[in-house]
Write a structure and sequence with these properties.
Layout lengths: L6 E4 L5 H12 L3 E6 L2 H12 L8 E5 L5 H15 L4 E4 L18 H29 L2 E6 L11 H21 L3 E8 L12 H10 L8 H12 L10 E4 L8
Parallel strand pairs: 1-2, 1-4, 2-3, 4-5, 5-6, 6-7
């Protein structure tokens, strides 16, 4: 088991990607600290993850918004006490809050811009500051962020693309700051089967599917497999990497 004896904190653990990652990590022997802004989704993920825990592994969950410093700190403090010192930080929280996924820049509201930046960056900011000092002190840590192939630019998604470009840049900068004992990498997915799919028209689904070499959307379990690689010692000679998990699509215009 690749994560035996390790403790992982997974944000956005109630969502499709977060819950799949939590379950996969549990199967690989990890103890888990799970958090999500939705109590209902978090409880569903906890039930799924508990069933996959290996002998001796622990699980702690706490509802909260990682965008709020006090709530993020509570998750870290209580989770560390209940499940152990954090070895792996999975920053999953992100996306676009607006029901309208695509919005031309010239009609985009300041509120949408601010919300997208906060949703994709603030949780990473809080949790890295809260968790990394312990990793550096123990001289071991794995931090994994979620960017997107959109970070290279996409019309109608200027806010999201800019935010994910910032996640990618943050990843590379932190990799330099935290070397040599803590690695910092990120995944760059294309369209994965999450709630985002429900917000696309049939024509938009066709277009995004056809952009991939594999001609299909990604499964959440495939994201979990990539996350496991970056969180484990299998990736010990990788840091500052932006790893595409995108069916052959490369981040480019």
């Amino acid at each position: 088991m690749r994560l035996k004896g390790k403790t992982a904190l997974v944000t956005g653990a109630g969502g499709p990607m977060g819950s799949a990652i939590a379950k996969r990590f549990a199967q690989e022997g990890a103890s888990l600290i799970l958090t999500d802004i939705s109590q209902r989704r978090l409880q569903e993920s906890v039930a799924e993850t508990e069933a996959a825990l290996t002998e001796g592994a622990r699980l702690y969950s706490e509802r909260g918004s990682v965008l709020v410093r006090e709530e993020a700190a509570s998750v870290v403090e209580n989770g560390t006490r209940e499940a152990g010192e954090i070895d792996i930080l999975m920053n999953i929280v992100g996306g676009v809050r607006s029901a309208q996924l695509f919005e031309p820049f010239l009609t985009m509201s300041e509120q949408r811009w601010d919300e997208t930046m906060a949703l994709n960056l603030k949780g990473n900011f809080h949790l890295v500051q809260l968790v990394a000092p312990g990793m550096l002190e123990r001289k071991y840590g794995r931090i994994v962020n979620i960017a997107s192939i959109i970070f290279a630019g996409a019309e109608g998604q200027v806010d999201y693309g800019a935010a994910k470009a910032a996640v990618a840049s943050m990843t590379r900068s932190l990799a330099l700051e935290f070397a040599p004992h803590v690695t910092v990498n990120c995944m760059s997915p294309a369209t994965i089967k999450t709630s985002v799919i429900e917000r696309l028209s049939e024509e938009e689904k066709r277009q995004w599917r056809e952009k991939t070499v594999l001609k299909r959307f990604g499964e959440r379990e495939e994201i979990a497999s990539a996350a496991l690689f970056l969180a484990s010692d299998d990736s010990s000679y990788m840091t500052g990497e932006i790893m595409s998990v995108a069916g052959g699509v490369w981040p480019a215009l």
